[in-house]
Amino acid sequence: MPYTHVLGYPRIGARRELKFALESCWKGETNTEQLEEVAARLRLAHWQRQRDAGLDLLTAGDFTLYDHVLDHALMFGALPRRFRSVVGETGTATVFALARGTSTEPALEMTKWFDTNYHYLVPELERGMSFELDARRYLEHVREAQAVLPGVKPVLLGPVTFLWLSKTVDGSDRLALLPGLIGAYRGLLAELAAHDVAWVQVDEPVLGLELDEPWKRALRQAYEALQGAPRPRLLAATYFTGIDHQLDLVRELPVDGWHIDAVRAPQQAQTVAQALDGEQVLSVGIVDGRNVWRTHLGDALARLRPLHERLGERLWLAPSCSLLHVPHSVAQESRLDPEVRRWLAFADEKLDEVVTLARALEHGEDAVRERLAESDASLASRRHCRRIPHATVAKRLQQLHPRMAERAKPYAERQQLQRQALDLPVLPTTTIGSFPQTPEIRRARAAHKQGRLGAYDYLQTMRAEVRRAIEEQERLGLDVLVHGEPERNDMVEYFAQHLFGFAISEHGWVQSYGSRCVKPPILYGDVFRPDPITVDTARYAQQLTDKPVKGMLTGPVTMLQWSFVRDDQPRERTALQLALAIRDEVQDLEAAGIRIIQIDEPAFREGLPLKASEWPAYLDWAVRAFKLASCGVRDDTQIHTHMCYSEFHDILPAIAALDADVITIETSRSRMELLDAFRDFAYPNAIGPGVYDIHSPRVPGVDEMLALIERACEVVDPARLWINPDCGLKTRGWAETRAALANMVQAACVMRERLKARRSTDAAV
Ligand SMILES: CN1c2c(nc(N)[nH]c2=O)NC[C@@H]1CNc1ccc(C(=O)N[C@@H](CCC(=O)N[C@@H](CCC(=O)N[C@@H](CCC(=O)O)C(=O)O)C(=O)O)C(=O)O)cc1
Ligand SMILES: N[C@@H](CCS)C(=O)O
Ligand SMILES: [Zn+2]
């Protein structure tokens, strides 16, 4: 029977046990031993589930208390120099110090894991550093798994992907560190061989990218160097895209097998199979690890049969990628619409799918007849569901006109009109939207959800929060206010709750970073907005103040990117449907007297395909979707967008093509470096470069922010500059928020005075 395994399993816990254990440990309510107990229980339960589902190999090494990339850095002794005097021995305290920062040292940078909504911590390396292996924790997990089932396949981040994901703090070439790093990997592989490990999964997702020659060379060097020493067999794992553009590497790298993503890149299964030698195994990722739809088992079998005939025992089956990106189990979803529930497979159900496929290949379809029939019925029910198509939506899509995605006047003219309409000072101050989601807000929402707080009382509680936010902002002297988003559990889930075409799970949590989770909505049908969503709240907030209040929406690309979306139509079409729904909301906000509307697109960059050659096609429809959402307003209505977690250097033409009047971006941690790119590109519209890092509880001083604003004024015409934090403040507390914003407003005031003084000096000269 084909070997069955997973590339990784969710670690947060079906009831988010790890999240709660981490947070109580951080609050000092429990100690690290208690945290470790919860972690060990979770690992055990997850392995038992894999074993009971019938997988042949258990996966170890995928569990982490915070982030697996950070764990690898520490296992290889890559402790950043700046932390050396701050932390002691590598242990849980060190992990948390690097992940969350200390009173003196900011945390490691966090960034997106390929094209997912998972954030990893970026290892900080430097020229000449040595790597020293400390694999005690990793090996302990391997032994724990072996006690559940002897067939354990540990997973390791491959050396080249590890370097690709890291940065050097001194600007030196990361690849120069490869030989030293390989020494540590060799040591680890020898240890694993001594632990009776037969196979190790070495993740090298960088193979899916369009790598340049030095990185390809690095792959060759790395895997040549891993040969020879005593080691288990290596399964090189790739995912999220195809590797059939790298068949030379597939042929050359001396590994014992390959894992490929046959969901995102079905065409590659045959070509990669042909490139293997007669010994190598092929692990086919046939079950979608990035989405929640049940696999059509009949179709999957039809695709697998020729591979099985060709490869026999050398065919392995698995989900396409780690199951980290999907929730634990559909079994918990007792409140989900039963029809939709029937279409879904989360991590546990995907284990069953993999095992069923293997049984069918080995023993014939009769052995799994019932499962195949269920799968057919589920697919038929989805295909024929009458709630999926929506006639109005289809008609509107047919009637789209290019003019709908263009503002009437160019930016320079809009800028004049908006200046007159809004009468804002130079360097206007604002925030990104959310204010602290206090435990009281979350408790009120939980009580409302459980029926303990009625709709009216919930509305009043949220209105009180909006009032508080407006009062705080007026006291602080901000220029453009926000309502604070208290009513939103999440910037994507909230909108999904109010749109047709989405289902919301109850426990479908997925780790976003550390203890933070998101519950991606399930987009199954045509998207339609039955009623305005944010207009009442925006109107309420606006009537509390004379200052402009920004309407606050989530953009179509981010809604798409952070949901589990339908796989029965192109993403582009779904994005346009979302765009139309948001366009209606934008127009309703304008009609309600809201003069500034922000459409957040933090996931705009994340949606880029992994292969750069596929970027233009994506950018084309992503820009169109944003413009369709944003361009249906008068020229004196100001459209803002916000992006964070992003590098924009290489997509600036597309960012400019969005034609938002103002873009607020995350820049404080890179000390405004990003602005150089905006200057070099001659970005035409207004920019709000973030002047403080909202990820840390640290309150930045006036001088610190003033220095950043000075730097920004050197790079961008102050007439086009806004002053704001990097991102929303939902994860912060009120005390630090208040203090930081007071400093920010003061820094803006000082800078305005400086500009005024400079202007009068210039005039005198
Ligand atoms: C901007 N970011 C976002 C991303 N993706 C999104 N979908 N949304 C984002 O905002 N990706 C990039 C970044 C990632 N950043 C973050 C930041 C913070 C969080 C976070 O805080 N997540 C929360 C869950 C948020 C939520 O939905 N809260 C619900 C309630 C959830 C809950 O646990 N309720 C409890 C009861 C509560 C109580 O009694 O006190 C329960 O149901 O048991 C809400 O507010 O109603 C988290 O806790 O992890 C995520 C990503
Ligand atoms: N308006 C959102 C954007 C987050 S990226 C917020 O402020 O939380
Ligand atoms: Zn943001």
Could you write a compact summary of the structure shown?
Zn(2+) 1 binds at residues 642, 644, 666, 727. By secondary structure, the protein is α/β, with parallel strands linked by helices.
CATH class of the largest domain: Alpha Beta
Class derived from helix and strand content: alpha/beta
Amino-to-carboxy terminus distance: 86 Å
The percent of residues in helical segments reads 40-55%
Query: What is the overall number of helices?
Result: 28
Explain what the structure shows.
The structure is a single chain. This protein has 28 helices and 21 strands. With about 775 residues, the chain is α/β, with parallel strands linked by helices. The chain folds into 2 domains: about 375 residues, TIM Barrel, CATH 3.20.20.210; about 375 residues, TIM Barrel (Alpha-Beta Barrel). It has an 8-stranded parallel β-sheet with strand order 1-12-11-10-9-8-6-2. Helix 24 links the parallel strand 18 and strand 19. Helix 1 packs antiparallel against helix 2, helix 18 runs antiparallel to helix 19 and helix 27 packs across helix 28. About 50% of the residues are buried. The model has no long low-confidence stretch (mean pLDDT about 95). The site of zinc ion has 6 residues, from loops. One of its GO terms (biological process) is methionine biosynthetic process.
SSE diagram, text form:
Layout (H helix, E strand, L loop, with lengths): L2 E2 L12 H10 L5 H22 L4 E3 L7 H8 L5 H4 L7 H9 L9 E3 L6 E3 L2 E2 L10 H13 L3 E6 L1 H7 L1 E2 L9 H17 L4 E5 L9 H13 L7 E5 L9 H6 L4 E5 L6 H8 L5 E7 L9 H15 L3 E5 L18 H4 L5 H17 L5 H15 L7 H8 L12 H12 L16 H11 L5 H22 L16 H5 L2 E4 L6 E4 L2 E3 L3 E7 L6 H8 L7 E5 L1 H6 L9 H21 L4 E5 L14 H16 L7 E6 L8 H6 L4 E4 L7 H9 L4 E4 L12 H14 L18 H31 L1
Helix pairs in contact: 1-2, 2-6, 12-14, 18-19, 23-24, 27-28
